[in-house]
Amino acid sequence: MIEAEPFNRRELVYDAVLYGLGATLGELAKTPSKAVVAEEIHRSFGKYIYEYLTKNGVELGRGETPQEITEHIVKTFIEKLDFAELELVEPTKDRGNRAVWRNLLGLRAYEELSKRYPDPFLSCPLNAVIRHVLEKKGHTLIVYGCKVDSANQILESWEGIKEGTKFLTK
After folding, report:
1. What is the torsion angle, in degrees rounded to the nearest 10, for the CA atoms of residue 23, residue 25, residue 30 and residue 32?
2. Rounded distance between C-alpha atoms, residue 167 and residue 106, angstroms
3. Which residues make Cβ contacts (< 8 Å) with residue 2, sequence separation at least 6?
4. What are phi and psi of 85, to 5 degrees?
5. Which of left, alpha, beta for 108 (phi over 0: left; psi -120 to 50: alpha)?
6. Per-residue confidence of the chain (170 residues) as pLDDT tens digits?
7. Burial 82-118 (b: 16+ CB within 10 A, else e)
8. How far are the Cα atoms of 60, 82, 160 from residue 54, in angstroms, in the given order?
């Protein structure tokens, strides 16, 4: 049994929700026909998070290009919602951008999901909002992978923007 302080218990509940949704979508994504359903659920999840946040005064999705829109959403989640600290973003040759995140909300859930699924961020509110907004521009976010160092509260991710709206299917 996990003995946790009250604050950590709250995080545990959040992590459990992320894990539950992420595992559900990850299992769906294992077959091509159900992966289409997983994509739709993920984008719907993003739509409703977007609606809820904007209704509560959080401005999301400013920018013209898919890159500008993504950067604005990431900046908003970091600065206005205390979602994580973004230490580094750098382009890679073949895996999109490498990002180094510290103190990411939901880190333990993403770590567990990364052990089982190619896209461990199917329950990530940030990725869901990005995909929802980018879909309107005919683009999506692709996850190439991640690596977690839970002892130091660091997650490295490799992600990129591409044309089209499919991110689990072709």
Report:
1. 180
2. 21
3. 12
4. -110, 130
5. alpha
6. 445 455 578 889 999 999 999 999 999 999 999 999 999 999 999 999 999 999 999 999 899 999 999 999 999 999 999 999 999 999 999 999 999 999 999 999 999 999 999 999 999 999 999 999 999 999 999 999 999 998 999 999 999 999 999 999 87
7. ebbebeeeeeeeeebbbbbbeebbbbbbbbbbbeebe
8. 7, 16, 25
Identify the residue whose tokens are 């333990």: 108
Is residue 140 within 8 A of residue 166, CB to CB? The reply is yes
Beta strands in the chain (DSSP E): 85-91, 97-102, 139-149, 154-163
Amino acid at 3: E
Residue found under tokens 């003995």: 3
Cβ density class 127-154: b for 16+ within 10 Å, e for less: bbbbbbbbbebebbbbbbebebeeeeeb
- Find where tokens 């521009």 sit: 137
